[in-house]
Amino acid sequence: MREQGKWDQASDECLKWLFDEPFSSRPARIGSYIGISLTNDHNYAEMCVRAGLQADSNDSILRNNLAVILAYQEKNLEAIEEFGRIKMIFDSAFPAVKRSMMIIYGLPVSNCRLFYPISL
């Protein structure tokens, strides 16, 4: 299933789904996952997330995915800013994410935990 051709087809189907249901975050989430985790197409992943955020700018999963995508693209300041926009369910989770991003980019911090991977 990890053959490149099949994931490219899945990417195409996600785009169709996204245009068919522009107010659903699900196609944007799945498209960003395919782009960043399976096809390594960061531009596609970012486009999916940004389209999904047009429908729901407060979707914390899409915000998380965008921050991770920006980090992969080495858009460090944008990634950190995007993590700042995430509305976490647990208030204590956000500082851990911010500390992780700071460590990744060489800023001094203490009590670091790993940041959250891209989510569906």
Verbal overview:
This protein has helices at residues 4-20, 26-38, 42-55, 60-72, 76-85, 93-104. By secondary structure, it is mostly helical. It has a single domain, classed as Serine Threonine Protein Phosphatase 5, Tetratricopeptide repeat. Helix 1 (4-20) packs antiparallel against helix 2, helix 2 packs parallel to helix 4 and helix 4 runs antiparallel to helix 5 (76-85). It is globular and about 40 Å long. Mean pLDDT is 78; it is low at 111-116.
List keywords for this structure.
66% helix, 120 residues, Serine Threonine Protein Phosphatase 5, Tetratricopeptide repeat, mainly alpha, 6 helices, globular
What's this entry about, in short?
66% of the residues lie in helices and 0% in strands. It is mainly α.
Task: Give the topology, please.
Blueprint: H1 4-20, H2 26-38, H3 42-55, H4 60-72, H5 76-85, H6 93-104
The CATH topology annotation reads as Serine Threonine Protein Phosphatase 5, Tetratricopeptide repeat
- What is the CATH homology-level superfamily? Tetratricopeptide repeat domain
Low-confidence stretches: 111-116
Distance between the termini: 18 Å
Name of the CATH class: Mainly Alpha
Mean pLDDT: 78
